[in-house]
Amino acid sequence: MHRLHTQPKVVGIKQTLRAIQNELVEVIYIAQDAQPHITNKIKESANHRQIPIIMVETMKELGDHCQVEVQTATAAILKEMEV
Fold first, then answer.
1. Less packed terminus of the chain by CB within 10 Å, N or C?
2. How many domains, in total, are found in the chain?
C-alpha cells in the first residue's frame, strides 16, 4: 500500500479502466466494500490482462492511502515508462 503514496497512480473507476485499456497498469487496488456492479468490469479486465489485484478493506481506507479526500472504489499503480 506504500506504493500508493510514492508511485504514479490513477484513482477511480473511469481512470483505472482507461489505464487498463491503454495497458498502463502494473497493479490494481479494489475496495472490498465497493458495489460489485461497479468493480466487476475492472476485475474482468484485470484478469483478462493478468494484472494483479490487491483487495483493500474499505473505500475510505483506499482513498486515504491514495491521499485523496474522498472514498474510492479502485486505484491503480501505473507502469514505469521508459523515456
1. C
2. 1
Give the integer Cα–Cα distance in Å for 4 and 10. 9
Q: Which domain holds residue 59?
A: 3-78
pLDDT, tens digit, 9 for 90 and up, residues 4-57: 888 999 999 999 999 999 999 999 999 999 999 999 999 999 999 999 999 999
Q: Is residue 83 part of a domain?
A: no
Per-residue confidence (pLDDT) for residue 83, from 0 to 100? 57
> The CATH number of the domain where 25 resides is what?
3.30.1330.30
Task: Find out whether 66 and 75 touch, Cβ atoms under 8 Å.
Answer: yes
Question: What pTM value is reported for the model?
Answer: 0.93
Distance CA 22, CA 71 (A): 24
Q: Above 90 in pLDDT, residue 82?
A: no
Map grid coordinates 491521499 to a residue: 67
Q: Are 17 and 43 in contact (CB under 8 A)?
A: no
